[in-house]
Amino acid sequence: MHRAAVLGSPVAHSLSPTLHQAAYDALGLVGWSYGAHDVGQQDLAAFLDGLDDTWVGLSLTMPLKAAVLPLLDSTTPVVDAVGAANTVLLAGGRRAGDNTDVPGLVAALAQHGITSVSRAVVLGGGATARSALAALASVTTDVTAYVRDPASGPGLAAVAAAYGVAVGVLPWADAADGLGAPLVVSTVVAGATDALAGGRIPNRPGTLFEVLYDPWPTALAAAWSAAGGPVIDGLDLLVHQAVLQVAAMTAEAGIVADPAALVPVLRAAGERALRSG
C-alpha cells in the first residue's frame, strides 16, 4: 500500500486526485491511492503527525504552501528561495519539502514556445506569485508585480534577488497598466481579475498565463481571447507540476517515471474531468 493526497482548504474542487490516479494507471501501479483532505493551517501539524509509513507524499495547495515550512525536516533550494513548498516527500519518518510549481511553470511556458520575453507581469503577491517570479527568471530579467497586499513586497524582492531578476512591486489599483506586457501571469484567486476584463485589455495583447483552471474561462481569460491574445490555462501548470510530483513520489519506491511521457496522459484526464464536471 502506497498512499498520497492533496491537502488544502477548500480542496474538494482539486483535480489532483484525477491526475495522480491517471499517472498510477499509466504506470501500472497496483496498491497506490491518492486522495484529497480538507486541512487548514491550524490542523496541518496534527495531520502530518498522524501519517503512518504507508504514506509516500503530499501535494499542498492554499493556504498550506508556506504554513508547512516549519514542519519540514528538509527543504530544497527552490523552497528556500520562494518560501513555499507544494510537495512533501515522506520516507524514513522524515518530511522533505519541494516545489514543483517553479519547474512546472517553466515547462508549461516552454510547451507554448515561450522561452524569452523582454518583460513580464505577475498579478498577485502570494506563494504562487513568488513561484511564478522564480520561474520567469528563465525567460526574462524584468518583471513587474501588481499586489493586493503591500506586505507581500519584501517576499517578492527576496525571490528576485535570489534569481537575478529586477522586480518592481506596484499596487493592485494600477494593475491595468501592466496588461500590455508580452507575458502576463495571473496568480490570484477566482474573481480577483474580473474588473480588469472590462475594456482594459490592449489591442493585440501578449500571452496571458492564467493559473486557475476552474472556473474556466475566467472573465479575464475570455476577454483576452476575444481580443486575440493567446491564453495558457491553469490546467497546463497543474499537469506539469503534477508529473514532477508523481516522479518524485514514485521514486521513493524505486519506480522510474518519465514526466514527459505522462504529460499528455494527465492533460487528457484533466480535460475529461472538467468536461464531465
Provide a descriptive summary of the structure in words.
The chain has a six-stranded mixed beta sheet. A six-stranded parallel beta sheet has the order 9-8-7-10-11-12. By secondary structure, it is of the alpha/beta class. It starts with a strand and ends with a helix. The protein is 37% helix and 21% strand.
Percent helix = 25-40%
Question: Total number of helical segments?
Answer: 9
Percentage of β-strand residues: 15-25%
**What is the ordering of alpha helices and beta strands?**
EHEHEEHEEHEHEHEEEHEHH
What is the topological layout?
Elements: E1 2-8, H1 16-27, E2 32-38, H2 41-49, E3 55-60, E4 74-75, H3 77-82, E5 87-91, E6 94-98, H4 101-111, E7 120-123, H5 127-136, E8 142-147, H6 153-163, E9 166-171, E10 183-186, E11 207-210, H7 219-226, E12 231-232, H8 234-251, H9 259-276
Parallel strand pairs: 1-2, 1-3, 4-6, 7-8, 7-10, 8-9, 10-11, 11-12
Antiparallel strand pairs: 3-5, 5-6
Distinctive features:
277 residues; 6-stranded mixed beta sheet; alpha/beta; 6-stranded parallel beta sheet
Summarize the structure in short.
The protein is of the alpha/beta class and 277 residues long. It is built from nine helices and twelve strands. The chain is 37% helix and 21% strand.
